[in-house]
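Design job #97: recover the sequence.
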């Protein structure tokens, strides 16, 4: 069968700080191709809807697959599905990905018959079987993870091994458009999949059933050798949870003489526990590290069930600095913040050298706070669920909340963007421009055109064609198994040694640290 894989357009924050290749969709495309199907791909982050229609007319696919990893992209996907069905009604349309896996039935009902099915869970595990079943005229409700208006198939399954499916990177037409910070261009790679923790605001663990699986160091090194981009973003939810695995990859990279520059995300407690791993990685190309601190005080950390003390967070920052790493941290701004709280955060951000990113508390389907957030949503517009808009009642009037939010985010602009950033990175910027890479340099002046309180407020006034169903009743307690897309497999689903498993348990729940 002929298959067109489609990644939706960029979200608000990706218009400035980064633009990552759609690795998840590349893996699905790779699995479909391995199953013998003819696959093409388009990424609407870097191409247009006109490009999509041109490719559709030229390729005449039998199936169009959309990646629905982000809730804010749901309206665009629905619009494309409706328009595609109108123009070419024989095309079968499949939507998969992280976010739509939690809201499959809702998306199908909004699509009004234009979507053939939702494929829940790991798309690269079932896409080949789904396409084969379609081609043979079989019952797609026998395929794991399939949901249609008529019913639901067996539970989603995992890929047998992370080593068996490789991303179809060659299908993307504009690889020089992907970057993160000064890593321009940058490719993305997966060392491990899943997360063994259980933070209340996150749906990574509920999607993967608290599993944690790893790719072999040899396969990872093979992939790194094939990637032409000099920059690498490691997409793991928490990098180097397992010390031995991280060290084995580093040793394989050193043995082969692979020269890349790396950016990764991790937790402060993982960094402090596995100091030697991060030290070795800093010697083989690790330059940037993102730490999701979420809060700067104990009360805030407790709210998110992040059992990393504030002292440990600051200790981790000190250690990362000692390795010469550039550190970015994320702080979650709660709608309950007042002017004084915003001012406190601004002062703190100015006192530290790290890059500070501010996101907004956002209940997502699949997270505990979706069911437990007693404040109730103030909007049902999918487009506003992008961690940059307030979707819960704000203590300050909404215009003032956005003024304070952007004023605080401007700290990042003042410290790390514009002429100051260009002065600090003059050598890097000049090299990138000589090589024809303009993503990073253009980013330095985009902040004010994207992060604007008037524009954010206006977003709330836009008519919404697609509304979320009414939020579920608030519950005092929840059976966490009901949250999972992939059912929990327990200890056997986590590629961790016993000491690391105990470390995870101690840092995710229980008595206070």
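Job complete. Output follows.
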């Amino acid at each position: 069968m002929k298959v067109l894989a489609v990644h939706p357009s960029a979200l608000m924050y990706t218009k400035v700080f980064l633009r990552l290749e759609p690795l998840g969709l590349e893996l699905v495309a790779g699995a479909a191709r391995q199953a013998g199907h003819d696959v093409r791909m388009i990424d609407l982050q870097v191409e247009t809807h006109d490009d999509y229609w041109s490719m559709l007319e030229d390729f005449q696919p039998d199936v169009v697959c959309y990646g629905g990893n982000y809730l804010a992209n749901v309206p665009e996907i629905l619009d494309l599905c409706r328009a595609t069905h109108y123009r070419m009604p024989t095309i079968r349309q499949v939507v998969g990905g992280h976010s739509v896996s939690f809201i499959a039935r809702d998306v199908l009902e909004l699509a009004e018959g234009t979507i053939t099915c939702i494929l829940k869970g790991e798309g690269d595990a079932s896409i080949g079987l789904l396409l084969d079943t379609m081609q043979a005229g079989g019952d797609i409700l026998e395929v794991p993870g399939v949901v249609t208006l008529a019913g639901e198939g067996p539970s989603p399954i995992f890929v047998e091994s992370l080593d068996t499916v490789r991303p179809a990177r060659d299908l993307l037409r504009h690889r020089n458009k992907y970057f993160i910070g000064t890593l321009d261009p940058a490719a993305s790679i997966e060392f491990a999949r899943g997360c063994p923790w259980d933070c209340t605001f996150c749906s990574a663990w509920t999607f993967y059933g608290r599993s944690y699986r790893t790719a072999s160091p040899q396969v990872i090194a093979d992939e790194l050798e094939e990637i032409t981009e000099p920059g690498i973003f490691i997409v793991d939810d928490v990098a180097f949870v397992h010390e031995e695995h991280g060290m084995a990859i580093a040793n394989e990279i050193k043995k082969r003489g692979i020269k890349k520059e790396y950016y990764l995300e991790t937790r402060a407690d993982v960094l402090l526990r596995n100091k030697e791993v991060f030290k070795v990685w800093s010697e083989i190309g690790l330059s940037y590290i993102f730490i999701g601190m979420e809060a700067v005080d104990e009360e805030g950390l407790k709210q998110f069930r992040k059992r990393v003390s504030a002292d440990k967070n600051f200790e981790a920052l000190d250690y990362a600095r000692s390795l010469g790493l550039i550190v970015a941290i994320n702080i979650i701004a709660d709608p309950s913040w007042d002017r004084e709280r915003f001012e406190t955060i601004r002062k703190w951000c100015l006192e530290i050298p790290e890059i500070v990113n501010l996101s907004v508390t956002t209940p997502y389907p699949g997270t505990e706070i979706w069911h437990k957030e007693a404040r109730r949503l103030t909007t049902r517009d999918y487009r506003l669920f992008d961690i940059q808009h307030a979707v819960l009642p704000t203590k300050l009037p909404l215009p003032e909340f956005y003024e304070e939010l952007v004023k605080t985010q401007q700290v990042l602009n003042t410290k790390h963007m514009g002429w100051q950033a260009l002065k600090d990175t003059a050598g890097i910027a000049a090299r990138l421009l000589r090589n024809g890479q303009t993503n990073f340099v253009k980013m330095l002046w985009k902040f004010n055109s994207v992060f604007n309180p008037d524009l954010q407020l206006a977003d709330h006034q836009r008519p919404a064609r697609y509304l979320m169903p009414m939020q579920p009743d608030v519950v005092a307690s929840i059976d966490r198994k009901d949250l999972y897309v992939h059912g929990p497999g327990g200890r056997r689903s986590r590629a961790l040694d016993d000491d690391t498993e105990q470390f995870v348990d101690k840092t995710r729940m229980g008595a206070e640290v």
